[in-house]
């Protein structure tokens, strides 16, 4: 009792946000975060894997809305133009993409940020799960975004890092370890099995121009087999990784379940559909709206009605 007739108010639980891997579906993370902020809810801890690390880094760095505005403008031509192809350790080096981010956004050290932030990567040599919570934020995000067969590994502190989705696709455990009492997890892996590079749409459908369709087709042909029947290179790699991540996600979330799980319904999204950001962002917003009651109950907060 702090005073006669009054009861001490229990401290608000520390909220953690676990942003999972899932390639282009990850733009849904943007909508989730924006909707939470509009409810007056700001996570104390943000943990990200792969695309979740990228979006999470923009959020804690204060540039999420800028990222949202930019990705909504992306066309298939833009996505293709950001890829620096190589055959050394992967298909895309990622230097062009992350160089673009460095030009548009600041790159502070994680330990200097207001919110706690951690990304998950995989040590290529030992297979160990690595949590990166110090140093330049964009390097931490890039280390987590090294999907085998697509992005080349990144050397971090003398060790080659692979995609964090290989060991912890939805980093609930990392969020808890960094102080979260209540964790909201965004699981993009529930619908990944069977997803491919990109669903080919005829010119004119969903705003896809002749030129964009041609570029996207050329890129898809780079990864597919000559006869058009057998699975192509990328399909084999992507499907294998997706099956693995789905199974790992189920296992890890069964052992350490979050208080709230958000699963974006983006079943027609393929891995490289980064040009469909608006659809994913809108779905992220809808998810928070549908779960607003549960979020209020766990956090003891009223939703901002304004």
UniProtKB/TrEMBL annotation:
Keywords in alphabetical order: Hydrolase, Lipid degradation, Lipid metabolism
InterPro entries noted in UniProt: Acyl_Trfase/lysoPLipase, NTE, PNPLA_dom
Every PNPLA domain range: 17-176
Full protein name: PNPLA domain-containing protein
Statement: the UniProt record of this protein carries the keyword 4Fe-4S: no
Renumbered ranges of motif GXSXG: 48-52
Motif, DGA/G: chain positions: 163-165
Domain of life according to the entry: Bacteria
Keyword ATP-binding: no
Residue positions of the active site: 50, 163
Pfam families the record matches: Patatin
């Amino acid at each position: 009792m702090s005073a006669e007739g009054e009861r001490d108010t229990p401290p608000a639980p520390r909220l953690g946000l676990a942003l999972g891997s899932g390639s282009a579906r990850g733009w849904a993370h943007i909508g989730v975060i924006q909707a939470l902020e509009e409810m007056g809810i700001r996570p104390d801890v943000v943990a990200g894997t792969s695309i979740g690390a990228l979006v999470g880094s923009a959020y804690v760095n204060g540039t999420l809305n800028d990222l949202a505005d930019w990705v909504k403008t992306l066309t298939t031509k833009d996505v293709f133009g950001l890829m620096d192809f190589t055959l050394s350790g992967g298909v895309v080096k990622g230097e062009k993409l992350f160089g673009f981010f460095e030009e548009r956004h600041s790159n502070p050290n994680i330990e200097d940020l207001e919110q706690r932030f951690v990304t998950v990567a995989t040590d290529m040599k030992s297979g160990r799960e690595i949590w990166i919570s110090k140093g330049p934020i964009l390097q931490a995000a890039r280390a987590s975004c090294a999907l085998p067969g697509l992005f080349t590994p990144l050397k971090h502190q003398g060790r080659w890092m692979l995609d964090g989705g290989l060991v912890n696709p939805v980093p609930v455990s990392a969020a808890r370890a960094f102080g979260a009492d209540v964790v909201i997890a965004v699981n993009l892996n529930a619908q990944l099995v069977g997803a491919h590079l990109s669903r080919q749409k005829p010119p004119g459908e969903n705003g896809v121009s002749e030129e964009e369709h041609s570029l996207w087709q050329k890129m898809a042909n780079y990864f597919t087999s000559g006869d058009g029947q057998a699975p192509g290179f990328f399909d084999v790699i992507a499907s294998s990784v997706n099956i693995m991540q789905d199974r790992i996600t189920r296992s890890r979330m069964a052992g350490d379940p979050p208080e709230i799980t958000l699963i974006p319904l983006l079943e027609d999204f393929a891995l490289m559909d980064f040009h469909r950001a608006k659809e994913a962002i809108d779905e992220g917003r809808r998810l928070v709206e549908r779960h607003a009651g549960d979020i209020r109950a766990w956090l003891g907060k009223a939703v901002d009605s304004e």
